[in-house]
Amino acid sequence: MPIEPTIVTSNSDSLFPAFHNAIEHSPTIPSKTVVRKILVAELDGALRGLIADLFDFEGYFVTDVEDETALFEAMQSVSKATQSPFDLVVLGLQAEGGLDLNTLVRLRDSGCRTPAIVLARERELPVDRRMLELDVAFLSKPFVLENLRIVANHALYTRQNQLDQLD
Q1: 23-35 per-residue burial string, b: 16 or more CB within 10 A, e: under 16
Q2: Are 111 and 85 in contact (CB under 8 A)?
Q3: pLDDT confidence band for 18 (50 / 70 / 90)
Q4: In the chain, where the domains are located
């Protein structure tokens, strides 16, 4: 059976092709009554767009930024506007650029406890005790998009369970 392209409108009102046949969305897609917000910070525009499209297609509201300054501006603006922080931060770290391990440290030092997934080449960022202290999940670049989706859904599910236990 040939795969038919389907055009899906994204949260940002741009169109992107999503190819699928009879495959359904993940069972962990957010409900229509709960808006899940994901912040994607990645220097590489093509990769950032691909990740944003993945989560947008899954039904999440996605904000994507390219540098540390924009990341902190997005964090502040969403806190002021909605009193509801992002549910997940996906942070692509670079050996050189504007996003590195110190960005994550500053994010945690600012009081942000939002679950985070770090994307980096292993040789640029060894997974060590510091990563555990910062409470992040790690995916090595290059990675399979499906693996990112699985790790993100797990992080969001775990966070929701923790919040439910507090109520």
Answers
A1: eeeeebebeeeee
A2: no
A3: very low
A4: 35-166
At residue 112's C-alpha, the angle toward residues 126 and 144, to 5°, is 45
- Phi then psi for residue 7, to 5 deg, are -95, 130
Cβ count near 43 (within 10 Å)? 17
Question: Per-residue pLDDT tens for 124-153?
Answer: 665 566 777 777 888 888 999 999 999 999
Q: Is the pLDDT of residue 72 over 70?
A: yes
Nearest residue to 127 via CA among 93, 82, 167: 93
Tell me the CATH class for 35-166: alpha beta
The three-state secondary structure class of 31 is: coil
Non-local (6+) Cβ contacts of 108 within 8 A are: 134, 135
CB 86 within 8 A of CB 37: yes
